[in-house]
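Onboarding guide, step 5: your first structure request.
Type a short instruction followed by the sequence, for example:

Predict the 3D structure of this protein.
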Amino acid sequence: MKTISLIHPFTPQAAGVVENSVATYHSQPHLKAMEMLTAETDSECRMEYFTPKRKRYTFAFKKVQYIFYPVNFKWNGDHKKWKKQFSKNCLKEYSENTPDVTIINMSGHSSPFSHSLAKIILQHNKQYIAMLGGQHYTDNAENGEYYKKANHILVHTHLQKRTMEQMDMFKNLDIRVFPLGVDCDVFKPIAKNNLIPKLLYVGRIVEWKRIHLAIEAVSVLKENGFPEASLKIIGPVSSQDYLNTLNTLVLKKGLEANVKFLGHKEHSELPNYFQEADLFALPSDKETFGMVMIEAMACGTPVAGIDCPGGPADVITHLENGLLTTPENYSQTILEYFVNKKKRTEIEIQAREKVLKEYSIQATYKVLHNSINSSLSKKV
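The system replies with structure tokens like these:
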């Protein structure tokens, strides 16, 4: 039996995820594709993370083994910064029992831990795949060696692949697009005929997410013929100061009855919220590929995103399957969307069609299956 590992070399907390909910909330496309791989190839599949707890622990979830390795504590606080986290416990285990294929999920900046892990994997004549999120990269000798020696590289969007192919660090390397799909039988539309605009935000509450733009959009809707327009905000608080700022903005705009903070919700609860919403708010101008965007669209709920490189613009076509705008015009674009009811129906249909065509869980599994097979067949 072959062992396949997908390691996220950071703590869930550092990524804004509740550790106890990681199996039902984080990296759901990866998990579902791994479940399918286990069932169809009889492989042992693992999802791995770091933990601030002192001891390694494991549990099984839907035929996938979850493993948590203690993160190294550092007095300078680096143990809390996800790009700088390190686990000697994990390296020790890999030295003693190296998976046949390891997918290392890290940003384009990579990390010292990723470099150390890759060396151990190669020393044991096994293979690793570098999975990259984000749209920023650190071009140095260590990263160049790390990417060069990977079996191949996985990214989540075609735009990211094209960008990397123009960079010296990635020139002539095998870069593949690994679409993050959703289960379209779970995330699906329901009949709705809302007369009142219902907006939804799902994600961390932190400054760079720019949730205040969504609140301001509700204020503009309220002032222009939609007095009962609403916004539900779901997600963990990563910045208490920013939450305080948002609450102050709600009070200032007189939106206490319009804006509700619902806190963290389990992933299994999200389809209902996506289905009942008319528009999903994604107001950050620093977004990369976001699963919540695809999940909303699968439910026939279009996304109002910012036209920024590497994120919503790689999925959304303005006024075809969603909205793309600027931070300055965010509120006005949303207002115009709700005024034009006929166009709304067309956009809702096309949002769902986009996901069915390009971002189903079957598309995710196909790439994962081919990716693992090519790694296992390479001679070392």
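Each response can be followed by summary notes, for example: The CA atoms of residues 52 and 347 lie 44 Å apart.
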